[in-house]
Structures are given as C-alpha cells and as structure tokens.
Amino acid sequence: MSARCIPALLRALPASFPGGPARRGFSCTARLRDSGTDEKITVHFINRDGERLTTTAKEGESLLDVVIKQHLEIEGFGACEGTLACATCHLIFEQKVYDQLSSVTDDEIDMLDLAYGLTDTSRLGCQVCVTKTLDGLTARVPLNVSDARKDAEKGMQSSQ
C-alpha cells in the first residue's frame, strides 16, 4: 500500500478510533473549554492575492476554526476540516511567532511534507491554537495549495 492512500484510510476510521476523524481540534478543543475567557485575540491573515484579512479569535480556537467561524474567504482552506488528511490550511509564520507555537506532531510533519511552498516556519492552521501571547499574529497563506486527499484519489484512480 502506498503512503498516498493513508490519508483516505484515516478518514474512513471510526471517529472513536485513536487517530481517526475525531482528532479535529485535537488539543485546541480542550484549551477552549478550559480557557474560561471571552477575551478577543486579533489575528491577521495575508491571503494568496495579498489581501490582509483581520479578525478576532477566542483563546483555544485553532486558526482553521477562526477562518471557518469568521467566514474568511480563503479559497480551499481547510478542505479536510482539520482531520490532518490534506495540507490546505498550510500557513507561513514569521520566525518570532513560529517559535511561540506548540510543538509539531509527526502527523502534521507528514502532511506538511505534501504542502506546496513549504518553509521552515510552515504549520497547518488546524494544528495551531490561538493563545493570548499570539495576539496580533500574522499568518501568510501560500500562493499555491496542495490537497493530499486529491493526490490520494488520483493515485487510486490510476491504479485501477
């Protein structure tokens, strides 16, 4: 079995299976419940066309959740809804912001390896939790997007 089929298999797992779709919001969900604050944190996104999108977030939300809840128009962003099955929520950060983010997991590294325009300060928005120390952060959306789910589908179709 090729490694390209693995994301499709992960999506097929029951939500209760460790590593399955239930991991959406992984640690951000717990932080959101425990934060107990409605304090707004400013977040800026630089879209593919250079447009600056500014919004607010609650502590504990993932950057993917911020984009979805605030209805920000970033084409194709978060296509897998945070299940770590694509790289469409790929974001690039300034080094000083990147250094403040939580640790990168092996699953995230695997998906980032499939992202276009990967940099040393790339992360997936579904895996980055907003904290008070990140107030005012700017995240840049890469010019191109890679969706590992589509790559896996192409691989399965060509093998038939």
TrEMBL record:
Keywords noted in UniProt: 2Fe-2S, Electron transport, Iron, Iron-sulfur, Metal-binding, Mitochondrion, Transport
Subcellular location: Mitochondrion matrix
Needed cofactors: [2Fe-2S] cluster
Alphabetized CDD domains for the sequence: fer2 (cd00207)
GO MF term list: 2 iron, 2 sulfur cluster binding; electron transfer activity; metal ion binding
Main location: mitochondrion
Ranges in a coiled coil: none
Record-annotated membrane-spanning stretches: none
GO cellular component assignments: mitochondrial matrix
Superkingdom in the source lineage: Eukaryota
Similarity annotation: Belongs to the adrenodoxin/putidaredoxin family.
Name of the protein in its database record: Adrenodoxin-like
Organism: Geotrypetes seraphini
Lineage summary: Eukaryota, Metazoa, Chordata, Craniata, Vertebrata
